[in-house]
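Q: Could you predict the 3D structure of GNAT family N-acetyltransferase?
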Amino acid sequence: MQPTIEPMQERDVVAIAQLRLATFFEETGRTLEDDAAGLRELIAGDGFEAAFVARIGDVPVATCLLVRHELEPAHDLTPWLAGLVVDSSHRGRGIATALVRATEAHAAALGVETRYLYTWDARDFYAALGWNTVEIFGQDNETMALMARRPRL
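A: Sure. Here are the predicted structure tokens for GNAT family N-acetyltransferase:
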């Protein structure tokens, strides 16, 4: 079954927060309630920031965000593609690519010329989608890449 890519809705928040906690926030002290509240704030915002979800049937299995701020104070840039995660049982099906493309389309529709992201280990994935490495740097004892993408002209 092909996934449906749509803006996140309230019905997706808890499942996506659980996926995000397991992927990004284990042993950080961040709670399910914290992450769900942040997602609710994002989807109720001014429409610039966005959260997209991939659903298989009615089950949310992946997400990607466009946010104004990320990993402060590492770089004073905006906006950011952030929080891309696909449930492990649904990887390898093009869902991540579809979510990145939906997020990019949202940014382009807003007139955003350049968007940014951080990655620890997915440089090759993003490079294949047209993102360029701007800088490799250390953050919290990890090597990270700052990447950027401009819309196609």
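Q: Anything worth pointing out?
A: Helices lie at 13-24, 32-43, 95-109, 123-128.
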